[in-house]
Hints:
The chain is mostly helical. It has a single domain (13-223, 238-437), classed as MFS general substrate transporter like domains (Growth Hormone, Chain: A). It contains 21 helices and 2 strands. It has a two-stranded antiparallel ribbon with strand order 1-2. It is globular and about 60 Å long. 54% of the residues are buried. The model is unreliable at 1-8 (pLDDT under 50).
Amino acid sequence: MAEGKKGITARVVEKKYLYPFILITSCFALWGFxxxxxxxxxxxxxxxxxMSNFQGxxxxxxxxxxxxxxxxxxxxxxxxxxxxxxxxxxxxxxxTGAFLFIPASMxxxxxxxxxxxxxxxxxxxxxxxxxxxxILSMGSEETATRRLNFAQAFNPIGSLIGMFTAQSFIxxxxxxxxxxxxxxxxxxxxxxxxxxxxxxxxxxxVAIAFVILVVLAFVALSRMPNKDEGEHKIxxxxxxxxxxxxxxxxxxxxxxxxxxxAQIMCWTFIIHYGTELFTSAKYGLSVQKAEVxxxxxxxxxxxxxxxSRFVFTYLLKYIKAGKLLMVLAGVGMVLTLSVMFSPGMIGxxxxxxxxxxxxxxxxxxxxxxxxxxxxxxxxxxAAGLIMAILGGSVMPPIQGAIIDLGKTGIxxxxxxxxxxxxxxxxxxxxxxxxxxRVYQNN
Length: 442
């Protein structure tokens, strides 16, 4: 609850939107699953198909490239039609991309997997471009940021399931042979080992595709109210011009780009960071055991992320969103320096705790950037914020390339690569300060 302008209590979710809110919120968990079952696949594909860290990180390039490519067409689609249609198209593309893992694994061709990821994330882009502004519209504008944070709190629940699936049903079951050992196998043995490993990767994606079809059926059979139902006129250039001159919105897009980059880099390369630590002379674990143990720390990071999202959403009742964003990004910078320079477990634990700082960032940046926009402008504005997810496509390959360089001065390649994360949090902190002190309505 929140106090309205006239002293009337404003509901976070209006009664007429309760069922659609619940249904759409389930989609947040679905794309959370896709994101976090995929992050460990960078290292998995690198090993299975004997590729470099840079080549393996092309999984993220294809994954988040789909977000960028489809966000604007998705916004145009839902502006011409409605939110429900956008959700249905998104779920359909998500399921199609997941089912394409069947031919991809049979062909054993990495480029086909990349195409599958790209189509899958075109669906996720449709879902996010549609679901985020729809959630914002489900009630009073004064409670919109809290409402989106609450809905987004279910995203890490899906992420946790994705991480658990990656650890228990993929990483733990893959053949233990490393790249050098696979390179020594005869062609037939290698093909068999590769086929078995790719089938293990394929299974969770096919399973989630069937779950998506069930959700799609529920959405198709449900009435999904729209505030602007029946309004189909598109004035694209006029809207783009308004958005381009909205400094708060444009700064929000930039902050979102760097936030998503930071999130993906932290969660993708925590496996590399942990593996480097646990295979060191101090711990002496095998690479496979180190990877499985590192994934447990990845899951711990997501648990912290999930709990922190609920805690900070509650704190938004008392603290301005921009101020809280600025503080969390500042703490994130300190923790990133610890990740880079602290010895042993301290660095790894700092990387895990970083998830607490990141928990509030995506929906808060999103809510601040779109606040005050008319509903039709918000649909196009949402596309820009989803296109900013390109940060998760551009930055991880650069981080992978830094890791491939090996030791840089006093730092290993893995530790040195987190300088990119430090830059990201600096940009986010600046946006939070602007939102709090310049755009004082946040």
